[in-house]
Amino acid sequence: MEFKDLQQISIMDVGGPHTFRTIYMDGRAHPKNLDPSYYGHSTGKWEGDTLVVDTVGFNEGFWISRGIPTTERLHMIERFTRTDSNTMKYEVTVDDPGAYTAPWTAGFLLSWNQGVELFEYICQENNFASQLMLGSEQSVDRSSAIVP
To answer: What does pLDDT average to over the chain?
Structure first.
């Protein structure tokens, strides 16, 4: 089976709060009466070598990155394009008439670096006991490779 034949893709929040989102690749439409959620409802399709993801059904608790608010009217179109063996171009178009006067687009490049491991994300909402995870340390040194 080829990658493009998948009927569903899961995206993990790298180092994030141990969450994931599902992108349905089977041609289905968004449900009519969605119960709003943090990640909304995502459908995807291929346009050439670009994965295009259409997402609606967000709740107002969802923020794009830090400090970029949204409303339940948010409609996001994401594009994932592999530009070479080490780079993926990410582009997002945000259409949220409840928060912005016009749609806008942003993007960045994601790079793969051989031999680099991600650190474990331990900061969770209502975490009032970080000393239990870090011991007596005030912070964790991330200058050396982390081995699970």
So the answer is: 80
